[in-house]
Amino acid sequence: MKTSFLPKLVNGQTGDPALFVDILRQKRALLFDCGRIDSLSASELLRISDVFISHMHIDHFIGFDHLLRLHLGRGHRIRVFGPKGITSCVKGKLSGYTWNLVQHQRMLFEVHEFDGISCTISNFPCRKKFRPTKVSKKRVQNWLWSDELIRVKSTVLDHKIPCLAFKVEERDFYNVDPVRLKALGHKPGPWLNRLKEWVRSGSIAEKTIEVEGKRLEADELAKALLIHSHGKQIAYVADSGGSEENQRAIINLVRNADLFFCEGAFLDEDRKRASDTFHLTAGLAGRLAKEAGVKRLIPFHFSPKYDGRFSELESEAQQAFIQTNCHPAKTASTK
Q1: Which of the residues 151, 174, 284, 305 could staple to 146 if both were Cys, CB 3.0 to 4.6 A apart?
Q2: Taking the alpha carbons of 156, 139, 233, 326 in that order, is the dihedral positive or negative?
Q3: Is residue 57 within 8 Å of 278, Cβ to Cβ?
Q4: Is residue 148 scored above 90 in pLDDT?
Q5: Which pTM value belongs to this model?
Q6: Please, which contacts does 104-110 make with residues 24 or more away whose CB atoms are closer than 8 Å?
Q7: Where are the domains of the chain?
Q8: Total Cβ atoms within 10 A of residue 285
């Protein structure tokens, strides 16, 4: 499948949660959760434009300071999305340092606090010593956030605190068929990009486009010239109780994802421990993936109590997932 997404678990399946998703076409990256991220290179860290935090437990948020340190002085804007309380947590992180020499710095954190219905947006500009400004609020309809290439959904899960799960979807691809282009007698030009933009935005109906001095029906040209391929979908669930309500929310969010990164902290034999700590078992992760119809499951966030037995968690998750699937899923590369 054609894709611009290149995901990797920063700390593998057993370390702090952090999923780095390179967006190759735009030379930028997304980060889902922010556990230890010191193993990422400086060039990788500096490509991060958006950070999606499931919740602010230390193993999911301790890497924020490292991200701050690398981006400081670069003039970047970083969007941070998280559950209720993310704004005060970011404020606490930033207020822990002295900022008396940053009046000319252009770095900005734009924090989006999602409560399941609306987002409260706060700006933390470095040149103003990271004091929060310009608070606004918007109701979230379908997408937590979107741009011309990607869009992100989120749902609130119960981890005894609000915990966000995410699904990032790549916009569909439209490529020009060179054989058809030549057969129609047209030459490549900027008009092809305009045609693709109209198709992506759904605004092509009844439009005409100028091609080599002639006005032609845009919709007819698009049908004749553009090859449509679907973008990839990546789902991410880290830390969730196994309640029926959480299970329904996870299935609805991750349905038909190409890659599903799902926590599987405990074995099914320790389901009481999982229930007491509001985590999923590896077996339940596999069953949820199966019911949601995802193409590939990558279990992670294994409890350190299984040190030396992590393969059992992987096996339990994959066996539950492949029971009624035609093709066994393979473990994703974690480095």
Answers
A1: 151
A2: positive
A3: no
A4: no
A5: 0.87
A6: 105/72, 105/73, 105/75, 106/75, 107/71, 107/72, 107/73, 107/74, 107/75, 107/76, 107/77, 107/78, 108/76, 108/77, 108/78, 109/77, 109/78, 109/80, 110/77, 110/78, 110/79, 110/80
A7: 5-170+231-322, 173-229
A8: 32
CB 141 within 8 A of CB 190: no
C-alpha distances (whole Å) from 162 to each of 6, 240, 263 are 28, 9, 16
Helix pair angle (244-254, 282-292), 10° resolution = 50
Write the CATH number of the domain with boundaries 5-170+231-322: 3.60.15.10
d(CA 294, CA 251): 9
What whole-number distance in Å separates Cα of residue 171 and Cα of residue 195?
16
Where residue 327 falls among pLDDT bands split at 50, 70, 90? very low
Model confidence at 334, in pLDDT bands (50, 70, 90)? very low
Write out the DSSP string of 290-307.
Answer: HHHT-S-EEEE---GGGT
- Going by the DSSP 8-state scheme, the letter that residue 201 receives in this structure is H
Could you tell me if 215 and 234 are in contact, meaning their C-beta atoms sit under 8 angstroms apart? no
